[in-house]
Specification:
The chain has 292 residues and is α+β, with helices and mostly antiparallel strands. The chain folds into two domains: 89 residues, Phosphorylase Kinase, domain 1, CATH 3.30.200; 196 residues, Aminoglycoside phosphotransferase (APH), C-terminal lobe (Aminoglycoside 3'-phosphotransferase, Chain: A, domain 2, Alpha-Beta Complex), CATH 3.90.1200.10. The strands form three sheets. It has a five-stranded antiparallel sheet. Strands 6-8-9 form a three-stranded antiparallel sheet, with helices on one face. A hairpin with a 6-residue loop joins β4 and β5. α3 crosses α8 and α4 runs parallel beside α9. The relative contact order is 0.12.
C-alpha cells in the first residue's frame, strides 16, 4: 500500500473525515509501521511484512493485546484485523529505548514492567512452546531446500540437551520479544509495545530478549530483575539467549531464501551468520557457569 492507500484505509477504519500519513517509523525487520494523523489524532498504522503469517498467529496476538491492555503497560489498540494483520493503535509520543545510549536505559523500570506481566494472574490462550516453534521454523527452510550446516546441527544438539530442563520451568504470561526497541520512553514513563510473540513461557525468556543487540544490556536487566541472580537464573538467561539466536537464525535464513534481503535492503545471510556465532557464544557462557 502506498501513502494514499494507507491514509484512505485509516480514514475508512476510524470513520474519520480526513487522514494523512505523516511518516514511517523505522526499525524492525518484520512489519511496516506508519504514523497517521486522522481528524487531529495520531495513530500508528501497521502493515505486516511479507510472509509474516509463517511466524505470527493474529488471532492469538489479538487475544494477547487484550490481556496486556488490562495491565496498563501499553498503548490502546483501536483496530486489529486478523486476516490482513493491519493494526491501528494510539500513537505514543516518545522514543524507543534502542535510540538511547544504553547508559541511559531505565533498567529498573523495564524490570518493573516485566514483573507486572510475569506476576499477573493473566494467562495467554497458548504457550509459546519454544522448541516446537524452533522445529517449525527449521521445517520452513528445509522445505525451501536449505540444508543446515554441520556447525548449526552441532550447536542445536548441545542446546536441545537442555530442553527437558528448560521446559520444566514455571510458565507465566510473557512478552516474548522484550528487546529495547519495544520499550518506549514517553515523557517520564515507559510503555511496552509489540505483542506478536506473546505467550506463556519461562519469565527469564523475556529478560534474555533484552540482550538482542548487546549482551551486557541483557546482563544489566538480569541484575535489575534479580538484585542477586542465582546460578540457576544466570544459566536460564544464557540458555534462552542461545535459543533465541537459534530461532532468529532460522528466520533470517528464511528471509534470505525468500529474497527479502533485496526487498528490505538487509543482508539476512550475514544476519544469520552472526546469530550462528552467538549461539556458540551463549552456550560457551553456559558451560563456563557450570564450571564455577
Amino acid at each position: 500500500m502506498d501513502a494514499k492507500e494507507i491514509a484512505d484505509k485509516a480514514r475508512e477504519i476510524l470513520g474519520a473525515r480526513e487522514a494523512e500519513v505523516e511518516f514511517r517509523l523505522m526499525g524492525g525487520m518484520s512489519n511496516y509501521t506508519y504514523v497517521v494523523r486522522a481528524d487531529g489524532e495520531r495513530y500508528t498504522f501497521r502493515l505486516p511484512g511479507e510472509y509474516s503469517e509463517y511466524f505470527v498467529d493474529r488471532e492469538l496476538e489479538k487475544a494477547n493485546l487484550a490481556l496486556m491492555e488490562k495491565l496498563g503497560i501499553t498503548n490502546e489498540t483501536v483496530y486489529l484485523d486478523v486476516e490482513s494483520g493491519i493494526k491501528i493503535a494510539r500513537y505514543i509520543e516518545g522514543e524507543p529505548l534502542s535510540t538511547f545510549d544504553s547508559s541511559r536505559y531505565p533498567y529498573e523500570e523495564v524490570a518493573r514492567i516485566l514483573k507486572i506481566i510475569h506476576s499477573s494472574d493473566l494467562r495467554s490462550p497458548a504457550d509459546y512452546e519454544p522448541f516446537a516453534r524452533l522445529e517449525r521454523y527449521e521445517r520452513y527452510i528445509k522445505d525451501l531446500g536449505f540444508v543446515h550446516p554441520a556447525r548449526y546441527n552441532e550447536l542445536r544438539a548441545e542446546l536441545f540437551a537442555y530442553r527437558p530442563y528448560l521446559e520444566t520451568q514455571k510458565k507465566t504470561l510473557t512478552h516474548g520479544d522484550s528487546q529495547p526497541s519495544n520499550f518506549v520512553r514517553a515523557g517520564d514513563g515507559l510503555v511496552v509495545v509489540d505483542f506478536e510473540f506473546c505467550g506463556n513461557n519461562d519469565p527469564l525468556y523475556d529478560v534474555a530478549c533484552f540482550a538482542n543487540k548487546v549482551y551486557e544490556e541483557g546482563l544489566n536487566l538480569l541484575r535489575a530483575y534479580f538484585p542477586d541472580p542465582s546460578a540457576d537464573e544466570k544459566k536460564r538467561f544464557h540458555l534462552w539467549r542461545a535459543f533465541q539466536c537459534a530461532q532468529w537464525y532460522n528466520v533470517a535464513v528464511f528471509k534470505e531464501l525468500k529474497g527479502m534481503s533485496a526487498t528490505l535492503k538487509i543482508d539476512f545471510a550475514r544476519v544469520a551468520e552472526n546469530y550462528l556465532r552467538l549461539i556458540a557464544f551463549y552456550l560457551e557462557k553456559t558451560a563456563l557457569l557450570a564450571e564455577k
